[in-house]
Every structure is written in structure tokens, then in C-alpha cells.
Design brief:
This is TnsA endonuclease-like protein. It comes from Thermomonas haemolytica. The chain has two domains: about 90 residues, Trna Endonuclease, Chain: A, domain 1, CATH 3.40.1350; about 70 residues, Winged helix-like DNA-binding domain superfamily/Winged helix DNA-binding domain (Arc Repressor Mutant, subunit A, Orthogonal Bundle). It has a four-stranded mixed β-sheet, with helices on both faces. It has a three-stranded antiparallel β-sheet with strand order 9-11-10. A two-stranded antiparallel sheet has the order 2-3. It is elongated and about 60 Å long. A hairpin with a 5-residue loop joins strand 4 and strand 5. It has seven helices and eleven strands.
Length: about 180
């Protein structure tokens, strides 16, 4: 789930699918964990590597135990393969906790009937402000339900138009800022 949250809140990930396929690695099937597509069309497959399956886990030269064989199998299948290490997920635990708490808002935003109008209103707040907290945006848009405003603000974070200044700490006073070059790969 942690990896899915990373993809969900990464504006450079347009789409992702869990468990997209298996690769035959020296006669042994290996199930890949994710497939992603980026704005410029690049597609990648991802394998989540547990600490127990990592050689030199704390070294900058860490490696998946079966990396060579898996890379060869991916090349033979003409796939772009990336590794996601469990240790990196542990290091990002605070941000991942924030994304987990924001996920219901991101999902709700997709169902709001006034989504586009509200997106315009939230982004208009950043025409005059460099940064604003969730509370400030909700207060400025009192004509809308506060939960809807927050859902749209979170949706704008997912699409890369806004960013949380400190994703490791989430409160009503968490600050958002406009991203200048969102969606560029």
C-alpha cells in the first residue's frame, strides 16, 4: 500500500496498476508489483524489494539478490524495470502516513459534481498568495463545504498543481503552495 500511495500522490504518475504481470526468471515466475505510466508516455514495471532480499541494504550500492537475472528477464521481455526498496519506504514513513490520511479526500474529489468550479476557486486563492494553509483556503471559500474544499486541495496536490510544504506533518494548519512546473517529466 505504501508504494501505491507514492504513485497516487506523485504528479508524474498518470496511472498505475498493482500486480500487472509475472516474469520467468531462470524457470521461476516472479510477480512484478506495479506498472506505471508517466505524462510523456514512459511505462515502467516495479518490484518491491524486502530488506531480507537486499544485498548490503544500508549501502548506496545495495542490490536485489536476484537483480541480474531479473534485469535480463525484463530486457528479454522488453520491459523497463525499477526496484523499490523497503528501506526507502521506511525512511518515508511520515510522508506516507500523510498520504494515507489524505487518500479519502483524493478519492472524494473525483466524485464531486462541482469539482471543476471548485478547482478554479481554490487555484484562484494562489493568484494572490504564495502559500496558504488548508484552514485559510477553507475560510476563504466559505460558500463551499469545508470537506469539499479540502478534497479539491488534496486533488490539486495529486495532480501536482499544489504541493504540501511539509508532507511529514499534517494538520489543519499545514501549508500548501503552488507548484510552478507541475506535470513535467
Amino acid at each position: 500500500m505504501a508504494v501505491a500511495l507514492r504513485f497516487e500522490f506523485n504528479p508524474l504518475t498518470l496511472a498505475y496498476v498493482e500486480r500487472p504481470r509475472t516474469l520467468d526468471v531462470q524457470g521461476d515466475p516472479v510477480e512484478l508489483d506495479f506498472w506505471t505510466r508517466e505524462p510523456r508516455g514512459r511505462e515502467r514495471f516495479w518490484l518491491v524489494v524486502a530488506i531480507d532480499d537486499t544485498l548490503s541494504p544500508r549501502s548506496p550500492r545495495r542490490e536485489y539478490r536476484r537483480a541480474r537475472a531479473l534485469i535480463e528477464a525484463a530486457q528479454h521481455a522488453q520491459l523497463s524495470l525499477e526496484f523499490c526498496y523497503e528501506e526507502d519506504l521506511q525512511k518515508d514513513a511520515a510522508s506516507l502516513g500523510t498520504w494515507y490520511r489524505l487518500l479519502p479526500y483524493a478519492q472524494t474529489a473525483l466524485t464531486l459534481p462541482n469539482r471543476e468550479a471548485l478547482r478554479t476557486q481554490v487555484m484562484a486563492q494562489f493568484d494572490t498568495l504564495t502559500r496558504a494553509s488548508f484552514g485559510q483556503i477553507e475560510s476563504a471559500l466559505r460558500g463551499f463545504h469545508a470537506a469539499d474544499v479540502r478534497a479539491i486541495a488534496v486533488d490539486l496536490v495529486c495532480t501536482g498543481q499544489l504541493a504540501l510544504v511539509d508532507p511529514a506533518h499534517l494538520t489543519r494548519f499545514s501549508v500548501l503552495e503552488r507548484r510552478s512546473a507541475h506535470g513535467q517529466a
